[in-house]
UniProtKB/TrEMBL annotation, chain A:
Tetramer composed of two alpha chains, one beta chain and one beta' chain. Residues 229-244 have a biased composition (Acidic residues). SUPFAM superfamilies: Casein kinase II beta subunit (SSF57798). This is Casein kinase II subunit beta. Keywords: Kinase, Transferase. It comes from Coniochaeta ligniaria NRRL 30616. Coiled coil: none annotated.
Automatic annotation (TrEMBL), chain B:
The lineage of its organism: Eukaryota, Fungi, Dikarya, Ascomycota, Pezizomycotina. Gene3D superfamilies: 2.20.25.20, protein kinase ck2 holoenzyme, chain C, domain 1. It comes from Coniochaeta ligniaria NRRL 30616. Regulatory subunit of casein kinase II/CK2. As part of the kinase complex regulates the basal catalytic activity of the alpha subunit a constitutively active serine/threonine-protein kinase that phosphorylates a large number of substrates containing acidic residues C-terminal to the phosphorylated serine or threonine. Residues 59-79 have a biased composition (Acidic residues). This is Casein kinase II subunit beta. GO terms for molecular function: kinase activity; protein serine/threonine kinase inhibitor activity.
Length: 259, 347
């Protein structure tokens, strides 16, 4: 019996978290520090969320030494994964956690934005709810500020609560320099080169909204985050959303002559 | 000659069944055989004649007499592997020549395809593929798995790969699977996506995913039946970007509190996913006509025209509406051209 315990122990010792974050489908998770896990304060309230809380925590901390059957072990294992996720949601908004997630973000571990105009900007995982077993994890693009479904089905099943609704926004509050430059570039549906009226009318309306926002921000002397060139030309024309090269050149020369 | 049409061994059908070519429609042979449809392609494709022959599964000219016969022979011996068939057919040619023709044929087929899917038969075929969900769904969460359409960002081959246009949010996305990264966007063209929406105005764009979404997007108006047929700017109001607008724009929050616009990391792109709560706000021509004391610099007749055509229409005869829509479609364009210092007219 002692043999079995030590055996299973060595199997998991210092490996459980390693194993967890490196197993397939868990690419979005970062490794939680030992110190964070051992500080009970960080785990406040989680004991009511997770079944077999103590065993699950022991398993995560690699001090699990309960002699039990496979079925029990399976249940505890499941609880441990759930508990890890819930702790993860808290951990990633700490300074250390943010730094770890930032590394993963920079490596584009969470995938890239599918939107063409975002130019494969890296995504961040997020939840639509902080309550577990509610909504699956989604991906947030900081460039277009929209949410996307994960490409792969193995990520579609991850609970969104393991990342939470605040993490990605906190990240950019803590690292404001990382807020990507926004682009007014967009797709305009066309038929043989002509814009389609319904879509173009909507685009004009949206551009109006954008210019309103820019004016608001300028009044308060806040950087709108858009690239300079576009910032200026918006004032003059409410029809600046041209993907055509000629038109862009024309506008560029216009602004140049205006200076 | 057309013995091979529709047979699964034809070059066209085997090209379309290749991995990564799932978005392609099968161009009918009649369409290719009409020279008018191929106008100008000679100059764009190397070895044009040979490539065209390969697409149509026609033998080279030198053995024109037994063309039909040979064609049938080959059909028998080919087992779905068209590339092998192609190799066997032109036994007189060198292998390197063949690969050039093969790639020329693919290019030519793509360019014909770009034209074909904008024709009546082609767009019909694409609509069937759309119905079956062959083009995938929009990755955007708030579009609720709306089906997408393959489009190109350029009509010139070799510039960009195929993209997916989501009619629900009017944006373009990179296909999720990397195998589509090898498909040229010009083979679908810039026109198809928009033309599709104009050709099939009755499609419920947001159908896939959740039906409650459509009712949600319409909840602002009280009478559902009038709303059903409400047309604005030549499209059913319910089909104008159903995935955008209030409730479908992401609002960043930290611990439940919204992030302020004045924050450095505050929201800046919400306009992109926004839509007026009252869709009638987009009826620019009507609003313009309603403005008091305007139209001093504009053509009076145009304004008159648009006022009549763009008024909010009660439910009625669909054909009548279509006729009116055409009249309405024309006028805002001329208005736009006049106000835009003719910049648009250059197009």
């Amino acid at each position: 019996m002692d043999d079995f315990v030590s055996e299973s122990d060595s199997d998991y010792t210092s490996y459980w978290r390693d194993w967890f974050i490196s197993s397939r489908g868990n690419e979005y998770f970062c490794e939680i520090d030992e110190e964070y896990l051992t500080d009970r304060f960080n785990l406040t309230g989680l004991n009511v969320e997770v079944q077999y809380y103590q065993y699950a925590l022991d398993l995560i901390n690699d001090v699990f030494d309960l002699d039990c059957d496979d079925e029990m072990r399976e249940t505890i294992e499941k609880s441990a994964r759930h508990l890890y996720g819930l702790i993860h949601a808290r951990y990633i908004v700490t300074t250390r956690g943010l730094a770890k997630m930032l590394e993963k973000y920079k490596k584009a571990d969470f995938g890239k934005c599918p939107r063409v105009q975002c130019n494969s900007h890296p995504l961040l995982p997020m939840g639509l709810s902080d309550v577990p077993n509610n909504k699956a994890a989604k991906l947030y693009c900081a460039r277009c500020e929209d949410i996307y479904n994960p490409k792969s089905s193995r990520h579609a099943g991850i609970d969104g609560a393991y990342f939470g609704t605040s993490f990605h926004n906190i990240l950019f509050q803590v690292y404001p320099a990382l807020v990507p430059a926004k682009s007014a570039e967009r797709y305009v549906p066309r038929c043989y080169g002509f814009k389609v009226h319904a879509a173009a009318a909507l685009v004009r309306w949206q551009n109006g909204k954008r210019d309103e926002m820019k004016r608001r921000l300028r009044k308060m002397e806040i950087d709108s985050g858009f690239r300079d060139g576009e910032d200026e030309e918006c004032e003059e024309s409410d029809e600046d959303e041209e993907l055509d090269e000629e038109r862009k050149d024309l506008e560029a020369s216009e602004t140049r002559s205006a200076h | 000659m057309s013995t091979s049409s529709g047979s699964p061994e034809s070059w066209i059908s085997s090209f379309c069944s290749l991995l990564g070519h799932e978005y392609f429609a099968e161009v009918s042979e009649e369409f290719i055989e009409d020279d008018f449809n191929l106008t100008g392609l000679q100059t764009q494709v190397a070895m044009y004649k040979e490539a065209l022959e390969m697409i149509l599964d026609v033998d080279p000219d030198d053995d024109e007499d037994d063309e039909d016969e040979e064609d049938e022979d080959e059909l028998d011996e080919s087992g779905g592997e068209e590339r092998v068939v192609g190799g066997g057919r032109h036994h007189s040619r060198v292998a390197s020549d063949l690969s050039v023709i093969e790639s020329s044929a693919e290019m030519l087929y793509g360019l014909i395809h770009q034209r074909f899917i904008c024709s009546r038969a082609g767009i019909q075929q694409m609509s069937e593929k759309y119905d079956l969900g062959h083009f995938g769904v929009c990755p955007r969460f708030n579009c609720n798995m709306a089906r997408t359409l393959p489009v190109g960002l350029s009509d010139i081959p070799g510039e960009d790969t195929v993209k997916l246009f989501c009619p629900s949010c009017l944006d373009v996305y990179v296909p999720p699977n990397s195998r589509f990264q090898t498909v040229d966007g010009a083979f679908f063209g810039r026109t198809f996506g928009a033309l599709f929406l104009l050709t099939f105005p009755d499609y419920d764009i947001s159908k896939t995913g959740a039906d409650h979404l459509t009712s949600l997007s319409r909840s602002g108006n009280n009478s559902a039946s009038a709303d059903e047929t409400l047309m604005i700017n030549g499209m059913f109001a319910r089909n104008i970007a159903p995935g955008l607008g209030a409730g479908k724009v992401y609002e960043p929050r930290i611990y439940g509190f919204r992030v302020a616009e004045i924050a450095k990391s505050g929201p800046r792109m919400q306009w992109l996913r926004n839509k007026p709560d009252d869709i009638n706000e987009l009826d620019e021509a009507r609003l313009y006509a309603q403005q008091p004391g305007d139209s001093d610099d504009d053509d009076e007749s145009t304004t008159q025209n648009s006022r009549g055509g763009a008024r909010r229409r009660p439910p009625g005869n669909a054909r009548l509406r279509t006729a009116q829509r055409q009249a309405q479609n024309g006028s805002p364009m001329s208005l736009e051209a006049a106000t835009n210092n003719g910049a648009e007219a250059e197009l």
